[in-house]
Design a protein that fits this description.
binds glutamine, nine-stranded mixed β-sheet, alpha/beta, 23 strands, 2 domains, Rossmann fold, globular, seven-stranded parallel β-sheet
Length: 576
């Protein structure tokens, strides 16, 4: 075991441009240090003035990830949890807004004892406090902190000041990493180092010299480029790490280790560790490289004027959870984004012929969402999946709309709706809970939904009960209780619920509520019996937030299993 010392801090900053994978680099550095036996925690600093990510539009800023304590945060927090197989809390998430809010609150409470409160040093000091507190709470040996934004922007300067102050205060305890980007240019396709040199100069002007440069590029860096960066940026050539594009993000820690990154950080931070173990991670990557077959999964949502890239960013946890389930079965899941508006009878006259295109999918998923756009098309999609026995997984809004669909087309409540879309519907099967009514009335939208982890009790002999039980038993050697007690805890982010007044009629019509809150007031999971449909499951919570590459979520795993079966049947039919 490596010796325990006071925590060490690794800061990840980004240069040249955004979107080159700082979050994955931070998560991967965490992973390779964890593989050396260190206890690692991670923080994300978002330069936004927003207090949290809950009020941000996911098609502009990417997915809003939800932590178990209900914190609505940046999608990178999801990457940290997935790579480090840990649970983070609000202590691990910082925004400009939250820091200023805290400083102003302290000033109002006379906590600065009459001093003049200034942007410097009080803002960076508050940042340092938060980072040190996260280290303490986690009992961490190593704390990874990712600073959002790009070097040279005005918005993250106070966070860089915090890094400078920490480095000054604790020499030998702080390492800084710059994730930079090298464009390919010219007919000889040469990787250009100049933008990286400028980024380092800007970092230098904030009083920080990077210890490591992670050189992101479409291809691997040659020796010449490493020499050039090293010479111009006052670095050792060995500290310039080549980070070419990868097919699968889980390859990144392995690529870093090819460049001996963890050993370099161990040395720079005066740590002791001579062994590393990435065995299970290597198996994971190997499984993804040689899939036995490819499944077609359709994700149907309200996509409007967004490219594929943005969609992938907005639903990253859903995509990852599907991949985790597929990796475990050594298959590949090919995801197609399907715009639900093309199945909306009001928007598209030929919707009946269009919707038949869904037959090509081995599994269909309707993810979370808000508002009325695309809703009728989603409801038609769910009906199609149900009637044609295509495996269906609904998440949050995808469950609420499945309840609407079932009410209309099976229970005979043909005007049923969610009050989110139709306030005065004669059959409000999805309604707002009394405790949420005031929030809506007073326009209190920030942090007021039903957020974070809540328990649910599962009904025995149901599909989901079987799935969770199986997953529990596979991990039981590492768990305290060997027997599955039918209680799960999952993360939520919604304002509306199944209306308890309609539960009985829906049950009478064949819908199973296989998971409820402990007091039975809130419906958490619906499903159809497997004699009727091979896999028709929808959850009020978001199982995708808890799925990990090495332990896929049971619901996603069984969705993939059902999709594999439906693929086999399809193959059988076409071969006949
Ligand atoms: N719009 C729905 C609600 O607020 C569903 C939310 C979601 O899918 N995350 O209840």
């Amino acid at each position: 075991m490596p010796k325990k010392k006071t925590p060490k801090f690794i800061f990840i900053t980004g240069g040249v441009m955004s979107g080159v994978g700082k979050g994955i680099a931070a998560s991967s550095i965490g992973k390779i240090m964890q593989a050396r036996g260190f206890k690692v925690t991670a923080l994300k600093i978002d330069p936004y003035v927003n207090v949290d990510a809950g009020t941000m539009n996911p098609t502009e800023h990417g997915e809003v990830f939800v932590l178990s304590d209900g914190t609505e945060c940046d999608q990178d927090m999801g990457n940290y949890e997935r790579f480090l197989e840990c649970e983070l809390t609000s202590a691990n998430y910082i925004t400009t807004g939250s820091i200023y809010q805290r400083v102003i609150e302290k000033e109002r409470n006379l906590e600065y004892q009459g001093k003049c409160v200034e942007v410097v040093p009080h803002i960076p000091l508050e940042v340092i406090d938060k980072i040190e507190n996260a280290a303490k709470l986690a009992g961490a040996d190593i704390v990874i902190t990712e600073i959002g934004g790009t070097i040279g922007e005005y918005q993250n300067i106070l966070f860089l000041e915090a890094v400078r102050m920490m480095k000054l205060k604790s020499p030998g305890h702080v390492a800084t990493v710059l994730v930079s980007f090298l464009p390919l240019q010219g007919k000889d396709s040469e990787l250009k180092t100049k933008p990286t040199q400028y980024a380092v100069r800007s970092l230098n002007s904030a009083g920080i010299q990077p210890d490591i440069i992670i050189a992101r590029a479409s291809v691997a860096l040659d020796k010449k480029r490493k020499e050039k960066i090293a010479f111009n940026c006052n670095m050792e050539e060995a500290d310039v790490i080549s980070a070419p594009n990868v097919e699968n993000i889980y390859e990144v820690p392995l690529n870093f280790e090819r460049e001996k990154l963890s050993a370099k950080l161990v040395k720079k931070l005066n740590l002791e560790s001579d062994k590393t173990d990435l065995k299970s991670w290597k198996t994971l990557v190997r499984n993804t490289k040689n899939p036995k077959k490819t499944l077609q999964i359709g994700i149907v949502g309200k996509y409007f004027g967004t490219g594929n890239f943005t969609l992938a960013d907005s639903y990253i946890s859903v995509i990852e959870a599907i991949r985790h389930g597929a990796q475990a079965k050594k298959v590949k899941a090919e995801i197609t984004w399907v715009d639900s508006s093309s199945f909306d009878p009001k928007e598209n006259k030929s919707w009946r012929s269009k919707i038949k295109s869904l037959n090509k999918f081995d599994g269909i998923l309707v993810p979370g969402g808000f508002g009325s756009r695309g809703v009728e098309g989603k409801i038609k999609t769910i009906q199609f999946a149900r009637e044609n026995k295509i495996p269906y997984l609904g998440l949050c809004y995808g469950m609420q709309l499945a309840v609407v669909e079932y009410s209309r087309n099976v229970a005979g409540l043909n005007k049923a709706h969610t009050v989110e879309v139709h306030e005065n519907t004669p059959h409000p099967v999805i309604a707002v809970l009394p405790e949420q009514e005031l929030n809506i009335e007073k326009k209190r939208y920030g942090g007021t939904m039903r957020l974070g982890t809540y328990k649910a009790v599962l009904k025995e002999k149901t599909l989901v009960h079987g799935a969770y039980k199986k997953s529990h038993e596979s991990k039981s050697s590492t768990l305290k209780s060997k027997v599955f007690n039918s209680i799960i805890d999952e993360r939520h982010r919604h304002r509306y619920e199944v209306n308890p007044e309609y539960v009985e009629i829906l049950e009478k019509n064949g819908l199973t509520f296989s998971g409820t809150s402990e007091d039975k007031r809130l419906m958490e999971i619906i499903e159809l019996p497997t004699e009727i449909h091979p896999f028709f499951v929808a959850t009020q919570f978001h199982p995708e937030f808890k799925s990990k590459p090495l332990s896929p979520h049971p619901i996603f795993e069984s969705f993939i299993n059902a999709s594999i079966e439906s693929n086999k049947i399809k193959l059988h039919k076409t071969n006949k």
